[in-house]
Design brief:
- The protein is mainly beta.
- 0% of the residues lie in helices and 61% in strands.
- Strands 1, 2, 3, 4, 5, 6 and 7 form a 7-stranded antiparallel beta sheet that branches.
C-alpha cells in the first residue's frame, strides 16, 4: 500500500512537472502541477484529465474550428485518440491525468 497526502499543495519544479501516482496495466496516473499552458498536441491514446485544484481553459480543435471549455476543481475532460487540444491554466492548477504509458 502507498498513501499520498497533500496532493492539493503539490508543486513541481517546472510547469507540467509530475508526480507519478502509479500505473495499472500500462496506464499511468500522474499528478501535474502547472502555471503555464501546455503545447497543442494530438492524443495518440485516450486521456482522462481531472482538475483537482485551480482552473483550466481546455482549448480543442475540431474540423479547423477552435473551442474552449473552462474546467474548475472537480471537473474532468475525456479526450479520445486523435483529439487535438491544449490546456491553459488560469494561475496555478493541479491536474490528475490518466493515460496510456508513454502517451504524448
Amino acid at each position: 500500500m502507498r498513501f499520498l497526502r497533500g496532493l492539493n499543495t503539490f508543486r513541481a519544479e517546472r510547469p507540467w512537472g509530475a508526480l507519478d501516482v502509479g500505473s495499472v496495466d500500462g496506464t499511468t496516473v500522474r499528478l501535474h502541477w502547472t502555471d503555464q499552458p501546455y503545447i497543442w498536441h494530438v492524443n495518440d491514446g485516450p486521456e482522462v484529465f481531472i482538475v483537482l485544484s485551480g482552473t483550466v481553459d481546455m482549448h480543442w480543435r475540431k474540423d479547423g474550428a477552435e473551442s474552449v471549455e473552462r474546467l474548475n476543481a472537480g471537473d474532468a475532460c475525456y479526450a479520445e485518440t486523435g483529439d487535438e487540444h491544449v490546456a491553459h491554466p488560469i494561475g496555478e492548477a493541479r491536474i490528475l491525468v490518466v493515460e496510456r504509458q508513454g502517451s504524448v
